Amino acid sequence: MRQTLKQLQQLKGVSRISMLTAYNCPVARSIEQAGIPIILVGDSVGMVEMGFSSTRDVTMDHMVYHIAAVRRGAPNTHIIGDLPHLSYETVEDAVDNAKRIITAGADSVKLEGPYYQAVQAITEAGIEVCAHTGLTPQKATSFKKVGKDAAEAEQILQESIQLQQAGAGMIVIEHVPAELGEKLTQALTIPTIGIGAGGQTDGQVLVINDALGIGDYWPPFSKQYAHVSDTILKVASQYKTEVETKQYP
Ligand code: KIV
């Protein structure tokens, strides 16, 4: 049965948490079959599925479409839906758009950066929030690792504590040094989910297309478990040959 973020918090310090992104129904179905407890419908959809060069092009309509598809494939898995760029600049927008994400089929929402009032207001509206710190692609101008110097690391630590105080029930930590990932994990009572944040966070998240090897660029911190683009090329080429040479059908 699908769990709330509050229930998933009990896993901190007990067992590591796995999370994968998904954007469509069949992939979500396989992830649910594998028993992964959380699916993130991330705004990474814009880059890995839609061909945009940034997540900033993703809209609420895009998110609603993909969340609904993922829910149809994974009816029993906790789904976190990303609030896209500029959808939570005011507290009113944050609450309205969080409600839309939940209506589309998500169980909780994720937003990037130190938007404490938005986190508090969404939480007070009865919607669970996952925060996102470290590299925050909606505002970042490069994909370099962040938190490498002491001042930046301290700022990320303080922001994370305030996000927790504002009501965040989980936090994604992206592309920071492993020592900072560990420090945040020790400092916070909510689970930390790392992506390029070392091996000491409470859980890990990967973009499914990166893990599958669908695409032509993979961040340095993602592990490719398969090479699906190669398989697609092979199948398409074989099919072309078989149709042209009348071997199929
Ligand atoms: O949008 C996304 O997929 C994310 C992950 C990289 C954590 O935010």
Gross morphology is: globular
Widest sheet: strand ordering:
1-2-3-4-5-6-7-8
Number of domains: 1
Number of helices: 10
CATH architecture: Alpha-Beta Barrel
Report the order of strands and helices. HEHEHHEHEHEHEHEEHH
The radius of gyration over CA amounts to 19 Å
List ligands, each type once: 3-methyl-2-oxobutanoic acid
User: Which stretches are poorly predicted, pLDDT < 50 over at least 5 residues?
Assistant: none
CATH superfamily: Phosphoenolpyruvate-binding domains
Mean pLDDT over the residues: 97
Q: Helices and strands: which structural class?
A: alpha/beta
**Broad CATH class:** Alpha Beta
* Most strands sheet: 8 strands, parallel, barrel
Secondary structure: helix percent: 40-55%
State the end-to-end CA separation. 43 Å
Work out the strand percent: 5-15%
CATH topology category name: TIM Barrel
Kindly state the number of beta strands. Answer: 8
Q: How would you concisely characterize the structure shown here?
A:
This protein is an alpha/beta fold. The protein has helices spanning 5-9, 25-33, 45-48, 60-73, 91-104, 116-124, 150-166, 178-187, 208-212, 228-244, and strands at 17-21, 38-41, 78-82, 108-110, 128-134, 170-174, 192-195, 203-206.
Explain how this protein is built.
The protein has helices spanning 5-9, 25-33, 45-48, 60-73, 91-104, 116-124, 150-166, 178-187, 208-212, 228-244, and strands at 17-21, 38-41, 78-82, 108-110, 128-134, 170-174, 192-195, 203-206. By secondary structure, it is α/β, with parallel strands linked by helices. Strand 1 (17-21), helix 2 (25-33) and strand 2 form a beta-alpha-beta unit. The N and C termini lie far apart (43 Å). The chain binds 3-methyl-2-oxobutanoic acid. Residues 21, 40, 42-44, 82, 132, 172, 174, 195, 205, 207 line the site of 3-methyl-2-oxobutanoic acid.
